[in-house]
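User: Show me an example of a complex going from sequences to structure tokens.

Assistant: Sure. Here are the input components:
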Amino acid sequence: MTPARALGLLVLAVLAVTPFVPMGVMGEYTIHVLVQIFIWSFIGGAWSLMGRFGLTSLGHGAFLGLGAYTTTLLWNFFGLTPWLGAIVAVAVTAVFAVIVAYPCSRFQVRGHYFALVTLAVGEVVRLLIIAERDWTGGSLGVTVKPAGDDSLLALQFADRRVFYYGALALWLAGLAVWWRVDRSMARSAMEAIGEDETAAASVGIHVTRFKVGITVLSAVLTAIGGVAYAQYISYVNPDTLAGIGVSLRIVFAVVLGGMYSMLGPTVGTALTIALSEYLRVLFGVKFIGMAETIYGLLLILFIIFLPSGIYGTVRQLVRRRRPAAASA
Amino acid sequence: MIDPLFLAEAAVNGLLLGGVLALLALGLNLIFGVIDIVWIAYVDLVMICMYAVYFIVQVYGWPIWAGGLASVALGAVLGLGVHLLIISPILTSAPVNQLLATGGLLFFLQSFATFLWTTDHRSVRLALPRLELFDMPISVARLVAFTLSILVMLGLYLFLTRTYIGTAIRAVSQDREAMALMGANPQRVYLVTSAVGGAMAGVAAALLIIQYAVHPFFGAAFGPITFMICVLGGLGNMVGAFVASFIMSEVIAISGVIWSTEMGYVIAFVVFIVMIFIRPGGILARRG
């Protein structure tokens, strides 16, 4: 067993027993932060599926919002269980992703242009949610209707530990998808497309099929993340689940961690969430905005000084040292 | 059926809004065309300058023109600062990192403004007469802002076409490598461009504060539409951005009257997305 694999299993074992470690009043809070880290890491991983191949989307908030709002509204208005609601949300998001990705690929919208088109898409979804305020509660958001008590059907539990294990499973599933894509033919094809689309097409790679495929996969996973987050917080809001703000936060976390490695998005998300929670606790309600100010400043510094991400940089350092150690 | 008078009024308001949007878009587009980086935080710089005008005019009681000049100077300094501190260290790194560094600046400016000045809406009140044209009330503040922004844009045009450094700026935006081979110093061109782009933000701030209240999320409200205009006009294409500003502002104003403000923006964004598919190089791009 390699040291890396042993470390991975150890981390997993610690995570599996964490909810039962007695931590007193801090317990609830620790669980809450960890659930958020799992869900947002999953979403970050979904983003990086596209991002690592040069498809920089600044509109993942659109997919997140579609997922969260579809299930929440179906439950609130028709009493449809979030399990079926999630399936509907996935279908809706997949169709929506095709509508965005197909023309983008056909008309060769790339780079800055792709980023800005997706940004517009994110804003369209956010504004539509606000405009349809009779249904969605507008910018005030809407609360997921309580089912009364614990209910598997309604995906509502008073005990946070249930969500903890659910989110942990979701996160692991996300890593599995990432690993599967990384080992597949699609990865080589997408890398070729990312390098040079015309050359890739000339060796027989179906550019549009791969691009649309990876976008749909990424969008669908993001929507599932949105459903999970909405069920956990039991409140949806257009500004926290759609639009530029959240889209940029996802991208930040991933780029900070490193988007070319499996655990990069997780490391980045864990750090940004831990940082913003720490700053929030540190400043409380004393200096409103101070926590976010420091957060923004640190993001700029990280991007300037660690351009390939924290995890990516650490891995490069380890790699550089290992051959030296082997030859010595 | 909507009263045609309302539509006419919306069209006039759209035209007046278009002037200021054009100013915003030209500043951003100038920077994009030359340095090849989208400053996501551009409108947040405008927001900071708007606060400066507010404090100078409304709190310290100086005349508005002094506030305007200070805003232009502050904008130029901010533009230089952004370039020297954030952009130049990462000039050669991946485009997504450059985009995100200015995105970090967006978070920073937004929350720092919240920290310093809270989320209260603040506006500069000027005693301007009301004007009516064919029974339509016309805001004099908007008319003044429109006229001044057209004049500033003319000034920018003359600067870019008639001065030596302006010619150098246009040359860099056409071909970065060739320009360096000709012995020109791209660093100097970048600095001047950032300062001019920042100063444009300052001008826009002075013209916006007499029409709109400023708050820390002002950038989030006007930012996306500004990027859309730049892309719609063709990134780096000045005339295109100018035309696109008026298309977008008319779409927003007219559909805002027919449906709602949010739907106005939704339609503007959808128009943008569809236009990118049909004319990816911008509305005025030559087919090639």
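The lines above are the inputs; the final block is the predicted structure for all two components together. Chain B has one domain: 4-120+138-278.
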